Amino acid sequence: MNSPHYILLPANPLFIAASIALAFLLNLLPWGHWVGVPDFVALVLVFWSIHQPRKVGIGIAFMMGLLMDVHDATLLGENALSYTLLSYFSIMIHRRVLWFRMGTQAAHVLPLLLFMQAVQLVVRMLVSGKFPGWMYFLESLVAAALWPVVSAILLAPQRRAIDRDDTRPI
């Protein structure tokens, strides 16, 4: 049987802001520099840039990048540049990505996340000259693997019921 197609309700701007704030708080936890822990802000920014490009765009990505720069005590603008490019390329492909199933969407998101990490790596190598190793890119693979879970959680408030009830307003 075919899976049901949902008609989504409009995204609540407060829910979008809360999800970005929660992703920022997850990045603030002490596990942020462990190998394989995904960048939750980048993952949520990609999600909202694909699903709501008019509400979450390059400006919000830049501001979140500056916040992450201050938190990580990195070169000011490193995360801002990478998040801005990530948001830009996510918005560029947002119409195409939405046509695919979750696994294929994750395959489209993976190069975006790898590119974001490559930009961060280039900036870090220009400043410090140290290569962190190939395990550095494991973060993007874990984030792409989490894409279906993040999509299900962030789309849950927008889903309508499949069988419409006359007592519900929508």
Q: What order do the helices and strands come in, and which of them pair?
A:
Blueprint: H1 13-28, H2 40-51, H3 58-72, H4 78-92, H5 94-97, H6 102-127, H7 138-145, H8 147-155
Helix pairs in contact: 1-2, 2-4, 3-4, 4-6, 6-7
Short description:
This protein has helices at 13-28, 40-51, 58-72, 78-92, 94-97, 102-127, 138-145, 147-155.
Task: Please describe what this structure looks like.
- The protein is built from 8 helices and no strands.
- 62% of the residues lie in helices and 0% in strands.
- Helix 1 (13-28) packs antiparallel against helix 2, helix 3 runs antiparallel to helix 4 (78-92) and helix 6 runs antiparallel to helix 7.
- The radius of gyration is 17 Å and the shape is elongated.
- With 170 residues, it is mostly helical.
- The protein has helices at 13-28, 40-51, 58-72, 78-92, 94-97, 102-127, 138-145, 147-155.
> What proportion of the residues is helical, as a percent range?
55-70%
The sequence of SSEs as H and E is HHHHHHHH
> Rg, please?
17 Å
User: Which structural class is indicated by helix and strand composition?
Assistant: mainly alpha
User: Average pLDDT value?
Assistant: 89
| Form type | elongated
Biggest sheet, in brief? none
What gap, in angstroms, lies between the N and C termini? 26 Å
Any descriptors?
mainly alpha; 8 helices
